[in-house]
Amino acid sequence: MRKLIAGNWKMNGLRADGTALARALAARHLDAGPDCELLICPPATLLAEIAPLLAGTGIALGGQDCHPDAVGAHTGDISAAMLKDAGCAYVILGHSERRREHHETDALVRRKVGAARATELIPIVCVGETAAERDAGRTLAVIGAQLSGSLPALAGADPLVIAYEPVWAIGTGRTPKQHEIADVHAFIRSELAKGTPRAATVRILYGGSVNAKNAQDILPIANVDGALVGGASLDAQAFWTIALAAGD
Ligand code: PEP
Q1: CA of 185 to the centre of ligand 1 (A)
Q2: Least crowded by CB within 10 Å, which of 2, 231, 232, 246?
């Protein structure tokens, strides 16, 4: 399966630097696209402005969250249809920063996945253990519970992406050992296989301190179908180097 390299810009980027970064990536892609799929998820304020900059480049656009309802009185929120209307093909859901800062539960994430699917956005559902959970030997139990709680029935043919993001690896410069990533990704694949015969087609991304230096060690690991990149996605050269490592 072709790997997917996704950039999560989080709450970074004003119009000038956000569009400059998108233009830099678009120019590189048109020049010589890497052998992987590329996705950027800028802040919501930049989506409509960046969409035309990516048109025809092959780089996809995604949102960082959506509301579970289709429309209504939800001040400050964004619906899946609004993301689609702004040019998005993907949406990140259940990121650990949203689970922590906005008290998002598995049940809420599951409803958001339903909203994304209803709008034909591809959900990227994030799961991952905290340091305390890993130290207690509970990593697989935590991830199993997050998967079963956050995913609606998988019988349909709707595309789905899972991102394994250990909470303790996000923004810290620390990453799990290669065999630890392999173990979790194999576990996620086997859990998905319990719910759908097409588990092999679900991309499972690794996320957490992926950078231009470690990408070549992480991306070849079995069942790693790409990366969700935070900090390093804000630098065109670093993001590009990661994308090139995905094609090796
Ligand atoms: C993320 O938050 O999705 C992430 C992977 O961040 P970073 O790459 O900065 O660790």
Answers
A1: 17
A2: 2
Pairwise CA distance, residues 84 & 70, whole Å: 12
- Domain 4-226: CATH superfamily, name plus number: Aldolase class I (3.20.20.70)
Q: Ligand 1 centre and the CA of 194: distance in Å?
A: 28
Give me the pLDDT at residue 30, please: 79
CB 219 within 8 A of CB 207: no
Confidence at residue 202, expressed as pLDDT on a 0 to 100 scale: 95
Report the separation in Å between the CA atom of 206 and the middle of ligand 1, taken as the mean of its atom positions: 10
Mean pLDDT to the nearest integer, 170-182: 97
- Residue whose entry in the numeric block shows the structure tokens 């935590």: 142
Spatial distance between the Cα atoms of 146 and 76, rounded to a whole number of angstroms: 26
Six-digit token string for 16? 């000038």
pLDDT value of position 158: 82
Q: Which contiguous run of DSSP H or E holds residue 162?
A: strand 161-164
Question: Which residue has the CA at smallest separation from atom 8 of ligand 1?
Answer: 230
Where along the chain do its domains lie?
A: 4-226
Percent of the chain beyond pLDDT 70?
A: 98
Strand, coil or helix: 186: helix
Sequence letter at residue 176: P
Which residue owns the Cα nearest ligand 1 atom 7?
230
As a whole number of angstroms, the distance between CA 36 and CA 199 comes to 20
Is the pTM here over 0.70, yes or no? yes
Please indicate whether residue 8, judged by its CB atom, sits closer than 6 Å to ligand 1.
yes
Q: What is the 3-state secondary structure (H, E, C) of 3-70?
A: CEEEEECCCCCCHHHHHHHHHHHHHHHHHCCCCCEEEEECCHHHHHHHHHHHCCCCEEEEECCCECCC
